[in-house]
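User: Could you write out the 3D structure of this protein bound to magnesium ion? I've included everything you need below.
Assistant: Certainly. Input first, then the structure.
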Amino acid sequence: MACILRKFDTKADDMRRPVILIVDDEEMVRKTLEILLKDYYEIVTAKNAYEAIEAVRAGSIDMVLMDVNLPGVDGIKALERIKGIDGEVGVVMLSASDSAQQAVKALRKGAYDYVTKPFDNDDLLSTIKRLADRLDLKSRLEYLKGELQEKSGYGEIISKSPKMKKVFDLIQKVGRTSSSVLITGESGTGKELVARAIQSMGERKDKPFVAVNCGAIPSELMESELFGHEKGSFTGAHAKKIGKFEYADGGTVFLDEVSTLPMHLQIKLLRVLQEKSFERVGSNVPIKVDIRVIAAANVDLEKEVRKGGFREDLYYRLKVVPIELPPLRDRVEDIPLLVEHFLDKHSRKCNKAVKGMTAEAIEALMSYKWPGNIRELENLIERLIVLSKEGGLITYDDLPLGIFSSDPAGQTKEAKDFKEACKLFERHYIIGVLNNTNWNRLEAARRMNIHRNTLMMKMKDLKIRGPRRKGRVFNS
Ligand SMILES: Nc1ncnc2c1ncn2[C@@H]1O[C@H](COP(=O)(O)OP(=O)(O)OP(=O)(O)O)[C@@H](O)[C@H]1O
Ligand SMILES: [Mg+2]
């Protein structure tokens, strides 16, 4: 059974065999290298640059051993493409020519080493071993860097999805400014987390961050909540009240569910954004403030504008920098990372150690649609920790039944068309066989009677990640 373990488990690192892609147009060379390496590494082969690029794109390749002189696209160009797809892949170039110029070119393009043919078997093995050690070290460093980032208040935003990478770039850029930001995304996608991260990036980081959930405040109290009131300004106003905007002076006001803001307050908010001033309820004295506004909406605000429920001028004022958060079902590659993060967070909070979660359980989580997004996942993990045994391992059987629309019959019923139904079925079938072979891809491909390269491509296409790369997974 495979499972996610706690960070830096050295036993876990030792258990996973790195995957090497051998690229050479000569079958003899491919075979010789395969025989030399197969006792230590998992082998994938390609006979030209196109196949090599496809294999890297399909994921799971750690190292590439590639001939420079390939038919069609040559090895140096392929190296460039491979590095563009996955900069972490270590590449060793092989060549019959010992041209120093060519070697320098390869190294400049990011190759780890350049080996001339005929090569000495032991030398080649030790080059690859050094590269493998370096990759391991690199992944640990990267992990450490990630941890530091978390601790240094970049927020606790966990993600490696390319869609979220764009969000991170925006957070960094916009953090240094005071422009208004409109964050959109389904409920539970991390809008408030992103808003806090923006605040923590810039000069306002030590100033107040005041979050207001517009949807949760009764509309008759909203004006006074946001802008404050003078004593006696309405029945029940027994004392002067400072509103959120005044309180947040110098910092950020986060307006959650901004679409629910009543019309007359939309006008007042527009004035705050344009003139940086407002009056308390019951007063004519303008109060000047230095505020950054970040608004969030989980409905389509543009549609609200078209329906007449939201002012168009305010919409554009808020949307100076729009940030759209993708739903969790569009970034399933984040699920193993998030699971690990929440296992850590909630086992600490509940003061209860857990060993981890099996890969089978994680696969089931990756097949689920998560209508409540990350919040739903976090709540589930917390619940599982509360219900688990001290030091226990969370397995597939511990998951609530709702998750198991991942059984093909249940899931295919929800598929939007025939193609999606076939994909869901394939996914379920492949995960099943992989589970039965302890995620040994070679053995799984043999049982399915398909080529291992086909399996790798299918896994990439169907977003089957299985046990985590770079070692924090083991087979027991
Ligand atoms: N990328 C992430 N990494 C780690 N935790 C996350 C991430 N995204 C969201 N969370 C966690 O999920 C929960 C929900 O996030 P948040 O409150 O920011 O969502 P939201 O989009 O504001 O939801 P709503 O629309 O319901 O207000 C929080 O506990 C948050 O810490
Ligand atoms: Mg929110």
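The pocket of magnesium ion (ligand 2) is lined by residues 191-192, 256 (CB under 6 Å).
User: Perfect, thank you.
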